Amino acid sequence: MEIDNKTSGEPLKEPSSNSSSNNHSDCVNRIKKVQFSNENITIENNHNDFAASGQLYHKHCNNLELSSNNSESSNSEISMSNDTSTERPSFLVGEEVETNGHDEVSEASDEFPQKMQNEIRPQIDLMERRKRLRPSMSRGTGLGQDRYQDRDFHIATPEEFVKKFGGTRVINRVLIANNGIAAVKCMRSIRRWSYEMFKNERAVRFVVMVTPEDLKANAEYIKMADHYVPVPGGANNNNYANVELIVDIALRTQVQAVWAGWGHASENPKLPELLNKQGLVFLGPPDRAMWALGDKVASSIVAQTADIPTLSWSGSGLKAHYNGKKIKISSELFQRGCVSNAEEGLIAAKKIGFPVMVKASEGGGGKGIRRVDSEAEFPALFRQVQAEVPGSPIFVMKLARGARHLEVQLLA
User: Which of these, 158, 216, 167, 168, lies nearest to 190 by C-alpha position?
Assistant: First the structure.
């Protein structure tokens, strides 16, 4: 075996030894020529040509060791020693091979390049910090994965999770009462959490509602769901905003919970109320909180009861009964803040002063709201609001000019 060093030009010959075993002869027969250069390493084999380049080059043939000088000189020495192992040499470029015992190459820190030690040290420090972190159940990052691997408990199913944390209700089947990006985000988030917690992204199953329009569009959320239920198309009051339909589907598909997302029926307090009566979970605020703050008419009355300034509207001056602990808005008080037809609405608009906004109490997302600048256009715009959110109470409010929208999320 002859080894040429291109930098020095001095040929190096294989040291002769009477104690060389057949194993070494096998290694020698396999490797015909090894050429070293400062940048590339080429290995020629009897049967295959291996070409590779990289910073780390580890060659394991039992006790075959490859070492280089600490000096910048390119002169190289290769020493071969006897071993009884007959394993085939393994070659790796760019990373290290896990080995046991004496097969470890350059194990001592003084033999490992200082540059590589400096590069690896930050990674080791990061691993040590990760081990000290407590498990997180919120985010699916790479750091979160390590936290779960290092946690001191193991949970395989939602049933075990509920038992572990002292819960009373198991949820492993959810109805998504929404479509589009809302449904996609919900399923992605829950499946990511399920994989991190249970190592099974399908631990929670999803049932979705699908309209003919969604099927025709080949919506992404349909592909992600485990089951889907066809529902009527058209306006959302036929499907995603139809509270009775949602409750009926939830009962027929035997889900334990319903997620409504945003828009559609998500702000309708009737949905959590009816689900609660059927023993199902609404993944959102309770109906009492939605009645108090989710409804535009009720929330305006609550604000006036708390002496918070409000814009002039059809229910200005109305206050609810408050006993220091609970606030109650009766149906009669609620209706006094609404207008039932275009004639009543026009009377309220004249009292408030144009321009005004005609709003549906159950509207949202740009639906059920119109700006009215004059008496002449009031009846037509009022009917548009009625058509967009059928059955919703309607009220009239003064237009806020030059206003900026500031929104605060409340957790009830």
Answer: 158
% of the chain at pLDDT higher than 70: 64
Question: Hunting for tokens 């291109």 — which residue is that?
Answer: 6
Query: What is the pLDDT averaged over residues 194-205?
Result: 94
The dihedral sign for the CA sequence 331, 336, 337, 342 = positive
Could you tell me where in the chain the CATH 3.30.1490.20 domains are found? 293-398
How far apart are alpha carbons 97 and 104 in whole angstroms? 9
* Alpha-helical segments (H) within 1-106: 22-30
Q: pLDDT value at position 181?
A: 96
Q: How far apart are CA 160 and CA 361, in angstroms?
A: 42
**Rounded to the nearest 5 degrees, what angle is found at the Cα of 36, between the Cα atoms of 30 and 41?**
75
Q: Which CATH architecture fits 166-284?
A: 3-Layer(aba) Sandwich (3.40)
pLDDT in tens, 91-142: 333 334 444 444 444 444 455 566 666 667 777 776 676 555 554 444 444 4
Domain with CATH 3.40.50.20 in the chain: 166-284
CB 177 within 8 A of CB 259: yes
Alpha-helical (H) ranges within 96-253 are 114-131, 142-150, 158-164, 180-198, 212-216, 220-224, 243-252
**Who's near 83: CB < 8 A, 6+ residues apart?**
21, 23, 24, 61, 62, 63, 64
Predicted TM-score of the model (pTM): 0.55
Give the SS3 label for residue 326.
Answer: coil
- State the Cα–Cα distance between residues 252 and 282, nearest whole angstrom: 16
Contact 209, 240 (CB under 8 A): yes
Of 98-107, 151-160, 180-189, the range with the lowest mean pLDDT is: 98-107
For residues 169 and 253, is the Cβ–Cβ distance under 8 A?
no
- Highest-pLDDT range among 13-27, 134-148, 277-291: 277-291
324: nearest Cα among 305, 303, 309, 310: 305
CATH class belonging to 293-398: alpha beta
| Alpha-carbon span 85 to 343, nearest angstrom | 99
Q: Which of the 8 DSSP states describes residue 203? A: S
Q: What's the CA gap between 97 and 215, in Å, rounded?
A: 51
For residue 301, the SS3 value is: helix
Angle between helix axes 142-150 and 180-198 (nearest 10 degrees) is: 30
Q: Are 349 and 316 in contact (CB under 8 A)?
A: no
Q: If we measure between CA atoms, which residue out of 75, 73, 71, 76 comes closest to residue 59?
A: 76
